[in-house]
Design brief:
Blueprint lengths: L1 H42 L6 H4 L1 H23 L14 H19 L6 H20 L15 H15 L12 H18 L1 E3 L2 E3 L10 H15 L1 H4 L10 H21 L2 H19 L3 H20 L1 H11 L10 H13 L22 H34 L3 H25 L18 H18 L3
Antiparallel strand pairs: 1-2
Length: 468
Amino acid sequence: MAAKKKAPGKSRKKAPAKKASGKRKSPAKKASGKRKPTRKKSGTTKPVGIRDFRRVEGRLFLWCSLSVVIGTLLLLGARPADAPPVQAVHFLPLVAYLGSLLFLHGVFLLFRFRGDPVLTGLMAFLAGTGVLAQTRMNTFNLEQVLDPGNFMLPAGVVLMVLTALLLRKGRYLLLKPMAGLSALGAIGIMGLLLAIGTRYRGAIFAPGGMTPSEILKILIVIFLAGFLTREIKSIRDRSHPVLPPFRVLFPLAFYWGLLTVLLVLQRDLGLFVILSTVLVLMLFLASGRWQYLVYAGLAAGAFAFLTFHFLDHGQRRLLAWQDPFSDPAGGGWQVLQALSGMYAGGLWGTGFGAGNPGQVPIAASDFVYAVIGEEMGFVGCVVVVVAYLFFFVRGYRISRAVGDPFGSLLAAGLVTVLAVQTFLNIAGVTKLVPVTGITLPFISQGGSSLITSFVSLGILLAVSQGRK
C-alpha cells in the first residue's frame, strides 16, 4: 500500500520538474519576446523630421537658383557692345529671386510647415523662368530701384507664405462660412471697376494700372466650394438622372448670369472662360454626374455663337484667329509676330539675348511664351509645359487626398484656375485658340495676376498640409 502511495507522490514530483524545465526555457522565450518590439518598430514609420520633409524643396531651390544665376550671367554677357556697362543694379532681379526662395524655405522650416514641398519647387522653376524672361525684355525699372514693380515677386512670395501659415492645420475651413461674402465681394469689385475704371486695349483697369478683377479667381472658387458643399446631398440626388436639380441650382444660375453680364460689359472674355470652366468642373466633382459636362459643351457652343454675332470685340478676335493674314498690320499682327519668333527659335532656340522678342507686342506679359520659344527653342517650351503639367497633377492629387468636401473642391478649383489660365495663354500664342489677353502664371509680367497666383498657391499649400 505504501508503495502504491509513493507512486502518485513521484508523479506529483515530476510535475514541478516540468515547470522547472519550463522555467529554463523562459529565457529563450524572453529573448524571442524582445525581438517582437523590433519587428513592430521596423513595421511602423517614424514621423519624418521637418528638415527631411523639406529637403526636396531645398534641393529644387538649389538647382533653380543655379540655373537662374547662370542664365542671368549669360544675358548680361550677351548685351550689345554699345550698351552701358554692367553695374550692381543689374543683379537686382536675381537678388530678389534668391532672397525670396531663401525666405520661403527658412520660414517654412522655422514654423515646421508640412505643406507640399514639390509644389514650391515647381513654382521656383516657373518663377525663375519668368525672372530670366523679364530680364531679357528689360521690364525691370532699374533706374528707379524702389519701383514697386521690381518687387512683385518677393511680395507675392511673402503673401503666399503668410496665407499658407494662416490657413494651415485645417484653418482653411474658416473660408467656408465666407462663401456668401466672397460672392458679394466679387460682384462689388466688378461693379466698382465699371464705375471708376479706365478702358485700355479692350480691358478696364483701376487707377494705377491695377486689375482688381484678378481677385475674382479666388473669391469665386471660395464661393463655389462653400455653396456646393452645403448643397452636396441635393446635387448628388439621383432621382432625376437626366436633368439637374433646378430648385437647388437656381440661386447659382441667377448669380452666374449677373456675373456674366458684368464680365461681358468689361469685355473680359478670358476671365469668363476661366470661371465658367471652374464652375463646370466643380459641379462635376461635387455631383459625380457627367451630364454637367454635356450641358457645358452646349452652353459653350451657344456662347461662341452669341459672341461672334453680337459682340464686336469677340468677333474681331475670332476673325484674327481664323485668318491673321487678313489684317497682318492690325488684329493679326501680334499672333503673326509671335509665330515668326517661335519659328526662328527652332529646336534649341537662338540663345539668350540672340533673338528679337521685342518685335512681339506685349511680349513681357501676354506673349512671354513666344519669348521662351524664340530664345530657348522648342525644347525650352516643352520643359516649361512639362513643369506646368507636374504642378497641376500634383495639385489635383492634393484635392483627392483631402478628407473634407470643402477642402477638396477648394483645391480643385484653384488648380483649375491656374490650369485653364496656362492653357489659354499658351494656346493663344500658338494660335490654337483666339487670343484672350490672359497672362502665364508665375512667368508673365504683371502685378495683380502674379500676386493672385501666389495667394492661390498659398491656399493650396495650406490644404495640402491637412488638419495636422
